[in-house]
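The following block was generated as part of the benchmark described in Methods. Ligand: flavin mononucleotide.
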Amino acid sequence: MSLYANCVRPLLFRLDAETAHHLTVQSCRVAGSIPGLPALSHSCLHSSAPELVSEFGGLRFSNPIGLAAGWDKSGHALRLLDSLGFGFAEIGSVSARPSPGNPKPRLFRMPQDRAIIVNYGLPNDGAEVVARRLAQYHTRHPLGVNIVKTNDGPNAPPCGPDEILADYERSVSLLHPYAGYLALNLSCPNAQGGKDFFALPGNISRLLARLEHLAIRCPVILKLVPTEDASALQRILNECDAFPFVRGFCFNLPAGKPDTLELSVPREMLAYQPGAIAGRPVTALINRCIARLYQLMDRRRYVIIGAGGVFTAEDAYLKLRCGASLVQLYTALIYEGPGVVKQINRGLVSLLKRDGFTHFSQAIGTAESCEDCLSEHSHLRP
Ligand SMILES: Cc1cc2nc3c(=O)[nH]c(=O)nc-3n(C[C@H](O)[C@H](O)[C@H](O)COP(=O)(O)O)c2cc1C
């Protein structure tokens, strides 16, 4: 058992989940400002191998495992974040205006399911403040900046289309100069005004048209509502066609507690618990979405970033085999600590060797159909 599992996790798990999260981010912020500590952390935690190095959109990834959005929402801990072993990291979601998010409590652990229930509702410092922060530090690994519509709270009057589009446009204009890539969060499960809007045909292309004049130089990824529905995915691909700066996709958590989640906790226990579930229960659902999108998309143009329930090298490998080119994790960091990233990368090298691949790109999409993706996790079949 690791130092994290033996000592750090038991202490953190005595605190409520949000306090533990806040404490961890602040500790990383302070640790990152201590001379020599980020370099020490990097030399202990980072691992790469020629078979794990890749390039995409002018960015070089020393390994394919990244930190998912939501851990460092406002870019407080960039220095240490860059030294935790990840091949890339995504901060945010950041919105045009600062937001306090949803009322507390809004984060809950489900250890039986290796899961977290999240109902944060996008608290963040706002694009102006985050842009100033980003201007002060250049990360050595690619940095993604995740952008979302401002959450003005449950009592705010409904927003019109122009207001929603202008909100994204403002954040993108402030943040794109500092981003390795931008992720447009079109699917936050816990906020009003964004995800429902982009479910309406035509609104994704309206947003992209609105961003065209900004001459964004970095690749743009769209973070979508998870769906396996080929016609819904094809509609999204069609809407992106005319906008070459869109270079990939990621799937968000599903809203609520859909039947497609694999839960050991009885659903009735969660009936009055607002929020989306991250971690183990979303693995199979997201894998099926990735495999479906991979079948449909232009693979020379787009990549998929696969996030959802990645805890082990086998989990990451399956995401790649379903069609992801990069993989992200968040919940595993809470349960396993930062050492998990190096463990996954080392395990990936062994799995590639086992299967006769000399580079991880050869494994991408090798589980050709969605059925193949599920068969390795047949116990996760819905
Ligand atoms: C506490 C928490 C906060 C999150 N906040 C955001 C967010 O602000 N923006 C976003 O796009 N995704 C957010 N996510 C979703 C993650 O980026 C990721 O897609 C999801 O958690 C699946 O990965 P995991 O199973 O490894 O946690 C959040 C997830 C968690 C657990």
